[in-house]
Write a structure and sequence with these properties.
CATH architecture of the largest domain in chain A: Up-down Bundle
Number of helices of chain B: 4
Distance between the termini of chain A: 36 Å
Distance between the termini of chain B: 47 Å
Number of domains of chain B: 1
Structural class of chain A: mainly alpha
Strand content of chain A: under 5%
Strand order of the largest sheet of chain B: 3-2-1-4
CATH class of chain B: Alpha Beta
Largest interface: A-B, 22 and 26 residues
Number of domains of chain A: 2
Number of helices of chain A: 9
CATH topology of chain B: Sufe protein. Chain: A
Oligomer: heterodimer
Number of strands of chain B: 4
Helix content of chain B: 25-40%
CATH class of the largest domain in chain A: Mainly Alpha
Largest sheet of chain B: 4 strands, mixed
Helix content of chain A: over 70%
Structural class of chain B: alpha+beta
Radius of gyration of chain B: 16 Å
CATH topology of the largest domain in chain A: Ferritin
Order of helices and strands of chain B: HEEEHHHE
Number of strands of chain A: 0
């Protein structure tokens, strides 16, 4: 079962990053919906593992290949989904996941049947050009560093809060963790799509268990609040340094969201 | 090895590559030794794994919850010492610290936390060779990268 969990973790990331890599808005949007479904699969598999008295971890053994066409991305997804089927449990949960995957496979095969869907992928070209405005080198570097730092941080937060949520019986904690996970999904989506636009799309690095096996929740939350404060500061600095109204507004918007995360986290301290 | 290398504030293609794909990242199975450097103030850590054979660093890896500077330094340092003997690896610490030279205080802490994690792993190896039971050796950082909350030095009137 932990092997199934790891494979689902890989598949969640593969669908998510396929969505970021592909330019076509319809395909991007649909794949992103499927990625959230895959994340729920992962969560349910985790719950089942824990209820059986076993445990799971966030170890990974995957790569994000720098593919050059939509079809390369879609074909790789079809292969991964096909290969995972035999790992699912033979029960109601396994049946549900298989039905979802079958629907996704049908959708992917429909896309692959029409050559018009085969577009060039620029998400990995490393050109670091922001098409919507002329950013100078310094601004581009600042944006690049911000996206690498924050895409990792959002991935980390999704997994850490999901890990804690799976292990709490406290309803308030459960709800706050859910809100924080949802918010981080949205931020990861924003930052991942921006990385793809810049041609620097990359997987966040793997989480070591020292990051998510938390003994002292209070200290973890206090450190987390300090990190949110630092993220707010980064957003503010970026918003001020980037001379692009649309981007500045976006970073202000993210900055205000971090404010509310801090309030949510403070509730966990009570 | 570190000619033309710039820390992340001036992104060279090499640094960008380390950001996109950090080298030697993650856990190592059956390591000879494990070291951790931790900044207790921020909770930031670097864990360092090494497989040593006849004084050669056969394999090495690291993981961190730290910032991008820490990742780039860890990636570069592990590339530098992999396949070398431990004497070279120990000297590489100074070489590495000198090479980066003009960095901010915050970046200096990022360099130090990686190097301290390596030192901790060597101490763990020494302790194991001496027959002590130690899962990993932990070193606490004296300097924190939390610059905003550092105690300020007392000013003379």
């Amino acid at each position: 079962m932990p092997k199934t969990y790891q494979a689902k973790h890989h598949l969640w990331l593969s669908i998510t990053f396929a969505s970021f890599a592909i330019d076509d808005e319809d395909i991007k949007s649909k794949l992103y919906d499927f990625s959230l479904i895959a994340f729920r699969h992962m969560k349910w598999l985790g719950t089942e593992i824990l209820s059986n008295g076993n445990d799971y971890n966030y170890d990974r053994n995957m790569q994000l290949y720098r593919r050059e066409s939509s079809f390369e991305v879609l074909k790789a997804l079809v292969e991964e989904i096909t290969n995972i089927q035999e790992l699912y449990p033979k029960n109601v949960l396994g049946d549900r996941i298989k039905t979802d995957d079958k629907y996704l496979l049908d959708y992917l095969n429909q896309l692959l049947a029409d050559e018009k869907n085969n577009k060039q992928i620029t998400a990995f070209n490393m050109e670091r050009k922001w098409d919507e405005s002329d950013l100078d080198q310094e601004q581009t570097d600042a944006l690049t560093l911000f996206l690498f730092a924050e895409s990792y941080k959002e991935y980390e937060l999704i997994l850490v809060y999901a890990y804690m949520q799976a292990r709490t019986d406290d309803v308030l904690q459960f709800n706050i963790f859910q809100d924080l996970v949802d918010e981080s999904h949205f931020h990861l989506k924003c930052f991942g799509n921006m990385m793809a636009k810049l041609g620097i799309l990359a997987l966040p690095r793997e989480l070591h268990e020292m990051t998510y096996k938390v003994d002292d929740l209070q200290k973890f939350i206090v450190d987390g609040i300090a990190e949110e404060e630092a993220a707010k500061e980064m957003c503010k600095e970026l918003s001020e340094s980037i001379k692009d109204e649309k981007l500045s507004k976006f970073f202000d918007f993210i900055n205000y969201q971090e404010n509310y995360h801090i309030e949510l986290m403070k509730k966990l301290l009570k | 090895m570190f000619e033309n290398v710039k820390m992340p504030e001036g992104l060279s293609p090499e640094v960008l590559e380390h950001l996109v794909s950090p080298k030697n990242y993650g856990k190592l199975d059956n390591p000879s030794c494990v070291g951790v450097a931790v900044d207790e103030k921020t909770g930031e850590y670097v864990i360092f794994y090494a497989i040593l054979k006849d004084d050669i660093v056969e394999d090495v890896s690291f993981a961190t919850n730290g910032c991008q500077d820490t990742v780039v330094v860890g990636s570069m340092f592990t590339e530098m010492i992999k396949g070398q003997n431990t004497d070279y690896a120990n000297k590489a610490i100074d070489k590495m610290a000198k090479k980066f030279g003009n960095v901010s205080k915050q970046q200096q802490v990022c360099i130090e936390i990686v190097l301290n994690a390596f030192v901790a792993s060597m101490l763990n190896y020494q302790n194991l060779c001496d027959g002590k039971e130690e899962e990993m050796h932990v070193l606490k950082m004296e300097e924190s990268c939390d610059m905003q909350n550092q105690p300020t030095e007392k000013q003379d009137a």
